[in-house]
C-alpha cells in the first residue's frame, strides 16, 4: 500500500463533489457580500437562513470527519515505529474508531436536518494538513489544529441545538465534543513527549500549527464575536490541554485571518469598480 | 428588466453568476402554470445575484394587484456546482413564491402582513403549507428539510410535529389558521427576532 497518500487520491463515490478553495476565494460575489450587512453570522434561530446555514455546516462537519478519519488512519500506516511509536499509532487507531462513529452520527444528523450526502461540495484542505511527512508536524496539524477546530465547531453546534431546543443535535454534538477533547489532548501529550529533547522540532511543529490554525480560521469563519459563525470554545480547549495563552494567541490569529480576508475583499471590490 | 409576457425579472443581465433573465422568466411562467397562479396577475421578480448559499431567503407580496417577489441568488444556486443555476431548485422555489402570492390574492389572507412583517413562526407555518402543496403538485421537495425549519421556529415537540402535519396536508387554509397554528405550538409567545426578517433584502438596498 502506498504511503503518504495525496488528497487527490482520496476514495470517494459519485455522490461527492470536490471544490477548490481558490474557487471560493475568487468568487466575485464574496467581496460584494463582505461589504453588506447580512446580519450577525453567529448561529441562532432568529438569524437569516438559520436552517440552511446549519445544514451546510453539518455537511461540512461530516466531510471533515471523513478526512479526520483518513488523516488518523494514514498516521497508523505511513510511519515506521522508529518515526512514530506504536503507542501513538494505537491512539490514532482509537481515534479512527471515534471518527468513524462521528461520520455515522453526522450522516444521521444530516437526515434529521433534511440534507443528504454530497448535497454540498467537499473541500479537502483539512486532509491536506494531515499530509505532512514529519509525524510530529502531522500530529500537530491534525490533533491540535484540525481537532481543535472540531472542538470549536461542535461546541457551536451544541449551543445552537440548545438555543433551538433540539435535543438530538445537542446530545450528538456533546458526545462528539467529548471525543474531540480527548483527541486534542492526545495531540498535546504526544507533541510534548516526542519533542522532549528537541525544542527546535517542537517550535517547528507549533509554527506549523499556527499556520494551519490561520488557514482553518477561514477569514472570519472562527472567532469570538457575532460576526463569526463558529465561536472559539476556550473552556473545552482548556480541558484539552491548551493554555490560556495559546487560546489568546489563536484568537489573535483568527482576527488576523479575518482582517486579511476583509482587506482582500476591499481590494477585489476596488478592482471590480 | 427582462419581460416575458406578464413576468418581469430584475436584473435583466446578471454579471456575477451565469444566470439568464429570460430563462428565469420562463421558469417563473412554468411555475405559475403548474401552481395555477391567475394568468392575469403580473409577476415582478428580483433576484439578488450577490447572495450565495447558504444565505438563502425569499419574500412574496402582492402590491397593487401584482405579485412582487424577491429571492436570494443562493436559492437558485446548485449547491453541488456553486454559481450555477439549478433548474430543479428554481422550479421549487418559484412554485413556493407563487403559491404564497396566490394565497395573498384570496380574501382569507386579506389580513396577512407583508412578508417583511411576518414573524419567523408565521413564515415557517406558511412555508410548511406551501411546501406540502408543492409536493402534491409533483415537485421534488424534501419534507424533512421543511420540518426541520418548522421545528426551529415552533419547537422540537410532539405538538409542533402534529401542527406541521396538519399544515403540510391541508388543501385550503386562511391567515387565521396560520396564526392559530403559531398559538398552538407556542411560537406566538416567542420574542420577536432581533434581526429583521428581510435583512438580506435590506442589505441589497444599502
Helix-strand blueprint:
The complex is a heterodimer of chains A (273) and B (206).
Chain A: H1 21-25, H2 29-34, H3 50-78, H4 86-113, H5 125-128, H6 135-164, H7 167-194, H8 199-216, E1 222-223, E2 230-231, H9 234-239, H10 244-272
Parallel strand pairs in A: 1-2
Chain B: E1 2-4, E2 7-10, H1 21-35, E3 43-48, E4 58-63, E5 66-72, E6 77-78, E7 81-85, H2 87-104, H3 120-136, H4 143-154, H5 158-169, H6 175-185, H7 199-205
Helix pairs in contact in B: 1-2, 2-3, 3-4, 3-5, 3-6, 5-6
Task: Give an overview of the whole structure.
The complex is a heterodimer of chains A (273) and B (206). Chain A has 273 residues and is an all-alpha fold. Chain A has one domain: Up-down Bundle (Ferritin), CATH 1.20.1260.10. Helix content of chain A is 67%, strand content 1%. Chain A is built from ten helices and two strands. Chain A has helices at residues 21-25, 29-34, 50-78, 86-113, 125-128, 135-164, 167-194, 199-216, 234-239, 244-272; strands at residues 222-223, 230-231. In chain A, α6 runs parallel beside α8 (199-216). The longest helix of chain A is centred in the middle third of the chain and has 30 residues, at 135-164. Chain A is globular, with a radius of gyration of 18 Å. Chain B is α/β, with parallel strands linked by helices and 206 residues long. Chain B folds into two domains: 2-105; 109-193, no CATH class. Chain B is built from seven helices and seven strands. Chain B has helices at 21-35, 87-104, 120-136, 143-154, 158-169, 175-185, 199-205; strands at 2-4, 7-10, 43-48, 58-63, 66-72, 77-78, 81-85. A five-stranded mixed β-sheet of chain B has the order 1-2-3-5-4. In chain B, strands 6-7 form a two-stranded antiparallel ribbon. In chain B, α3 packs across α5, α3 packs across α6 (175-185) and α5 runs antiparallel to α6. Chain B is globular and about 45 Å long. The two termini of chain B are 20 Å apart.
